[in-house]
Amino acid sequence: MPYTKKHKENTRIKILESAFRLFTAKGFDGVTVNVIMNDCGLTRGAFYAHFTSKADLYAASLKFSASSSNLAKLKPVNISDKEWVSLLLDGYLSFEHVQGIQPCPLAFLATDINTRSEETKAVYAGVYHGMNKAMMEFTTSYVDCDEQDILSVTAMIIGAVAIARTMGNKNAVIKLLAACRREAGLKLGVI
Amino acid sequence: MPYTKKHKENTRIKILESAFRLFTAKGFDGVTVNVIMNDCGLTRGAFYAHFTSKADLYAASLKFSASSSNLAKLKPVNISDKEWVSLLLDGYLSFEHVQGIQPCPLAFLATDINTRSEETKAVYAGVYHGMNKAMMEFTTSYVDCDEQDILSVTAMIIGAVAIARTMGNKNAVIKLLAACRREAGLKLGVI
DNA sequence: GATTTAATATGATCTATATCATATATTAGA
DNA sequence: TCTAATATATGATATAGATCATATTAAATC
User: Do B162 and A160 touch (CB under 8 A)?
Assistant: First the structure.
């Protein structure tokens, strides 16, 4: 019995992490299998022992990030829903997020996803649904806002991060993020 | 003197139109030079008499669309600023827009633009700036809203269209667009 | 209608990259 | 330390697509 059972699984996870980071930064066509594998210290040949294709990896990396970013599960037990919403907005609309620290695929892959397979798009749709559902559940306990409010706020913050990422001017990014943070705060009762 | 002077210019415009439609629909890497040229009834060989490269065309098509979609110039003379803002929001947040009729590059290329050249990104930034400036000018005449309000509304409508485009479910698209139309209307005084 | 010249098409090249086939390296247990 | 089984690396293949070089076509003027 060569290698421990977890060895391959660990490698798989390393590939998924590199893939997610690179795909969100550069899109499907902006990254090669070679680059992804090198990024996690391997070579391209090992790739097909883990995934059937580059497209397969893209979808898998999206699923992987979704599974490790469940907003409800990540919530610390000792804070209120309101405090959690405030923290989530702060993080989402932060300069660090725009730079790609813990990138949200909804914002980073918003247009890239359109040229992917239906199955891949379905994964993306699931992430989007999850975000709205979580925000709905958190806000319902302390503020009066309906589904339309939530949909408009998530569209705004996703849009803000997507646009911010295209900008070269840091001050303009900060201004845009602050504007949307204020607006989201007003809407969701966390100013 | 073979051909009229306008012949080449007309061909150039046909290429730009095809390119803009195809690039917005499928992104830079989702379209080939061949496909663009065939789309306007030509073959790939003719391409390099008009543009130096595919990347050159992408940037040119973005500029071209910007020049033909100046919101201030498009405004009919016989309507008020307020009516114009209302019409613009209706059109932007329409199902037809999501389907790609007169696509706004800000929404359709939001993440695609990140892997393009700095010059190309600058063109995109210009379009974004133009949109905000126009909205600011239209709204200032009849409603009290500051730059932050405008920035948050444009982020929302761009985000809404970008996300809507990823969805397979028409009803979900309609719901999202309606939510953002209501919100934008509240913010900009055009309910 | 013939000539000239620009516009367009055809065929070729060259490169990047996904994928595959095969060889090598690694490690758990004997 | 040796062996078996698996993971990984290397080298090869194949294809797509951007770009270029050259040939062909079309139209304005004579």
Answer: no
Q: Does A152 touch chain B (CB under 8 A)?
A: yes
A13/chain B closest Cα distance in angstroms: 25
Residues in chain A closer than 8 A to B112 (CB atoms): 27, 111-112
Q: Which of B134, B166, B171, B168 is nearest to B153 (CA)?
A: B134
C-alpha span between B132 and B64 (Å, rounded): 19
Domains of chain A plus CATH, in order, are 5-57 (1.10.10.60), 69-188 (1.10.357.10)
Place B1 in a pLDDT band, splitting at 50, 70 and 90.
low
Strand C nucleotides with an atom less than 7 Å from a protein beta carbon = 4-11, 16-22, 26-29
- Return the residue matching tokens 């309906």: A146
pLDDT in tens, B164-174: 999 999 999 99
Which strand (E) or helix (H) includes residue A33? helix A33-39
- Percentage of chain B beyond pLDDT 90 is 90
Q: Could you give the CA distance from residue B60 to residue B28 in angstroms, rounded to a whole number? A: 13
Instruction: Name the residue with the least CA to C1' distance from nucleotide D22.
Output: B45
Inter-chain CB proximity A163 and B118 less than 8 Å:
no
pLDDT confidence band for A8 (50 / 70 / 90): confident
* Interchain CB contact of A108 with B (< 8 Å): yes
* Three state DSSP letters for chain B: CCCCHHHHHHHHHHHHHHHHHHHHHHCHHHCCHHHHHHHCCCCHHHHHHCCCCHHHHHHHHHHHHHHCCCHHHHCCCCCCHHHHHHHHHHHHCCHHHHHCCCCCHHHHCCCHHHHCCHHHHHHHHHHHHHHHHHHHHHHHCCCCCCHHHHHHHHHHHHHHHHHHHHCCCHHHHHHHHHHHHHHHHHHHCCC
* Amino acid code (one letter) for B65: S
Residue pLDDT, tens place only, A119-136: 999 999 999 999 999 999
